[in-house]
Amino acid sequence: xxxxxxxxxxxxxxxxxxxxxxxxxxxxxxxxxxxxxxxxxxxxxxxxxxxxxxxxxxxxxxxxxxxxxxxxxxxxxxxxxxxxxxxxxxxxxxxxxxxxxxxxxxxxxxxxxxxxxxxxxxxxxxxxxxxxxxxxxxxxxxxxxxxxxxxxxxxxxxxxxxxxxxxxxxxxxxxxxxxxxxxxxxxxxxxxxxxxxxxxxxxxxxxxxxxxxxxxxxxxxxxxxxxxxxxxxxxxxxxxxxxxxxxxxxxxxxxxxxxxxxxxxxxxxxxxxxxxxxxxxxxxxxxxxxxxxxxxxxxxxxxxxxxxxxxxxxxxxxxxxxxxxxxxxxxxxxxxxxxxxxxxxxxxxxxx
Length: 352
Prior knowledge:
Helix 4 packs across helix 5 and helix 7 (157-165) packs across helix 9 (201-214). This protein folds into 4 domains: 18-127, Rossmann fold, CATH 3.40.50.620; 147-207, Glutamyl-tRNA Synthetase, domain 2; 215-261; 273-351, Arc Repressor Mutant, subunit A, CATH 1.10.10.350. It has a two-stranded antiparallel sheet with strand order 1-4. Strand 5, helix 5 and strand 6 form a beta-alpha-beta unit. It has helices at 2-8, 18-22, 25-33, 81-91, 107-117, 147-152, 157-165, 180-186, 201-214, 217-228, 234-244, 254-258, 276-287, 294-308, 312-324, 332-339, 341-351, and strands at 40-41, 49-54, 58-63, 71-73, 96-100, 123-127. By secondary structure, the chain is mainly α.
């Protein structure tokens, strides 16, 4: 009823202090003795203001007419969040309360309780909420906001932390990539912006790719092995790392690019049925390669393409799809070197 009336008048919905104004304390005690259920509320004095200094937003002031007499103890005897959080933070000797801007309206209630208990106030800092690139609110119902999703997608924890550090804060030297140690050294809470930053997964993918490219080969090899599982030959993973390190943005990009190293294609992204004549000639030429190196493979294939009067772009696309099943793959000649002569010849033989 009160909520509906307040909404109709476009006012803040709040308790109307009915019991405080109309029920005498002695009567209330008597009713409680008789077993009547009750709650305990704050009593915010009328005509007053509660102000506090927010480390990010400066001085914020609330008038008592806009602060509800919040329930502190429910009828079942259990405390509400507002009482519990203040007591818990005090007993835990919390010095800084850092939380989202959505909690600003609750802060005067908490300050009221700190003052009522005679406790020292912590420092308050309300950070902006993350938003989508279109400025809509990031929502757990619509967006992946749990850490496990990013790990499953192949993001590195250090890259995610680096990106999150830039959500509302800028490095003094305008750097985008920095270590956690450097972040700790440079970060000042007062420098956080009050404006809600945009969380852009595309930008995060770029940053994750930068981290992947900076990894040592053996480190990236271990990360990929742990990500794809032990069913994939580590020797092949080791050989393929140099071919894809500059190309992937997430660990999950590895298998779509490299699965053909571990098993033969079952389908092809190009119809090769009309290319069998060319593939037969490629098959014969590859059988004659003595030193199975990328440079030799490339030279012999280029000579064959020239001899057959086929453009290099068309020739190597046919060969790429025949070997990998895909139109896009790691460098073809190097990939064929890793696969080995016998395997490449056999893959062509299966098609022709």
